[in-house]
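Journal club side-thread
Mid-discussion, someone asked how the predicted structure for our own chain would compare to the paper's figures. Pasting it here so we can look after the session.
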Amino acid sequence: MSEISDDDRGNRVDTGRFRPGVSGNPRGRPAKSPEARAVEALARAESAGALEVVLSIMRTAEKDRDRLAAAMAVIERGIGKAGDTVEPIPVPVGASLAERAQAIADAAMQGACSVAQAASLLSCLASVAKVREAEELEKRIERLEKGTKE
């Protein structure tokens, strides 16, 4: 995990997140090169024709796998890949990590979210737990060191 620079400390809240209205990238995204802009313009100019080719394959290809691949390309371009979003899972305000984990497991068992989404969220919670544990250990060590120095 990277350390927060001294320049950033005043722009962040205690949790490490940026304060509201403060950007983590004040200079913004770097400008694209002229070559990159030219490639994008060419791709945009040809995209209608490319879509027609994909739709033609989807409608007329002899092999099912070709029709399916073309259909998936159209769907993913139109509405996005399945599983790219995580459905909100209601968790009581102020819930403990254990209560949050149980809410996620319950949501997966009830079909409110996929098992993969639940696993990903539980992995995030496990990471949060490790960070909290490390913070608590740091505080304990500081208290012990203060006790021995006095």
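Post-session note: The radius of gyration is 25 Å.
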